[in-house]
What we know:
Layout: E1 4-13, H1 19-29, E2 33-38, E3 44-50, H2 52-62, E4 70-78, E5 93-95
Parallel strand pairs: 2-5
Antiparallel strand pairs: 1-3, 1-4, 2-3
Amino acid sequence: xxxxxxxxxxxxxVQGVGYRAWVEYQATTxxxxxxxxxxxxxxxxxxxxxxxxxxxxxxxxxxxGPPSSRVDxxxxxxxxxxxxxxxxxxxxxxxxxxx
Length: 99
């Protein structure tokens, strides 16, 4: 089974509206690995690893976000397995501190 890793940047009104918690819930429900964090510029950054279908579905979900958010743009690029090392020890999906 193939596996893909994408790093995703979400811009808009995505901080302070539970976006990170929503991403964590959606990703773990889909069986994805990775992490999510706020960025000081107001965007949210996430890394998703899993089957191409599940990762594509997660990116599509990020374009809408939870009801209280407003997503202006979502961009993604292929990432390496090294990026997964940012997760907390023993966690499949982590919420990381703001950078």
